Amino acid sequence: MSGIVGRLLGSGSQLARSLLGTAQLPIKESAAGFKVKSRLKLRCRSCYFTRVDGRLHVECNEHPRHKTREIYNVKTLW
Predict the structure, then answer these.
(1) What is the pLDDT of residues 61-74, one digit of tens each?
(2) Which structural domain range is residue 71 located in?
(3) What does the pLDDT read at residue 69?
(4) Element housing 19 (H / E)
């Protein structure tokens, strides 16, 4: 039975999908957060430093993969 169902779903038949009640989920684009590094540097011309909550961040409008932030320093809590 699973072979028949697999062939029906694998062929992309809308009728089979509607009969079996399987719906395709919308694709979610993943957005990566900041990379965490101990030493920050500007990687291109559009990178710039900002300070957020006492931590240095590198932001970049041209290349979002350049976003980095400083490691959270636990020693400043005491």
Answers:
(1) 999 999 999 988 77
(2) 33-78
(3) 93
(4) helix 14-20
The alpha carbon torsion through 53, 59, 64, 69 (nearest 10 deg) reads -40
Tell me, yes or no, whether 74 lies in a domain: yes
Domain-embedded: residue 14: no
Number of domains in the chain: 1
How many C-beta atoms lie closer than 10 Å to residue 68's C-beta?
19
| CA angle, 51 then 54 then 57, to 5° | 35
pLDDT value at 43 more than 70: yes
Tell me what pLDDT residue 27 has.
63
Does pLDDT of 23 surpass 90?
A: no
Give whole-number Cα distances, 8 to 3, 23, 24, 27, in Å: 9, 14, 15, 22
